[in-house]
């Protein structure tokens, strides 16, 4: 099977590494700045192919590479609430318009519905939801666009809504903050409990969905229990050799601005039924957090620890 992954980043690196064991993988990228060059070299060693692509400015190339693959996985996304329409609506729409009989797997976000508390998938897609921020609204609109096109054209579609994603290759600004505080043995206590999902588990979901070829499926991707945010710092500190840590009550304002939108989802639980139907019950993977700390330590020693 031939897989096309749109977008080179933390999540797509995990997906590409995993599914390269099962088929031919091509990843698109716009630039190879900073840590993306590390991702590129790592995946090249796994036999992954690359195509430089700006999806909205090279439509002929986009069409050709979609036509030459069996499964299209869109991981393109942007943190924050500024200029998100292009990444979350315009690009997914253009991708879907060029899909014929391929399986399209669209990676969205649990924030697409804006729902908090006890949450399960809505009976009718994107109905009775309450996205409020530009990020949430754009994610929901992107989902609606690809769902509409998939129904009109009749191709298989699965929409994945991950909660807080973590994994070995994480290098976003919030992971870098975790790294530096953990390196100095500081564990901030902020009273945050999040629904999480390992990037490796998302890769497993992608492969299962690619084989299943569902039509119009949408699901939250998460582990079935909440994780205290403090735990990330504790695990990283241990991985970095800190024998003692200092637990300090800290104001949530120290968190990066783009991450603060996640705080509204503290304590939110997502129904496990749909995800367990595909890959069984999943749990928090402490090893991935440890490996992430060591990966960022490698980036620091290489002069590459700059947040993406």
UniProtKB/TrEMBL annotation:
SUPFAM superfamilies: NAD(P)-binding Rossmann-fold domains (SSF51735). One of its GO terms (molecular function) is aldehyde dehydrogenase (NAD+) activity. Pfam families: Epimerase. PANTHER family: NAD(P)-BINDING DOMAIN-CONTAINING PROTEIN-RELATED, PROTEIN YEEZ. This is NAD-dependent epimerase/dehydratase family protein. Gene3D superfamilies: NAD(P)-binding Rossmann-like Domain. Residues 4-171 form the NAD-dependent epimerase/dehydratase domain. It comes from the Archaea. One of its GO terms (cellular component) is cytoplasm. InterPro entries: Epimerase_deHydtase, NAD(P)-bd_dom_sf, NAD(P)-dependent_oxidoreduct.
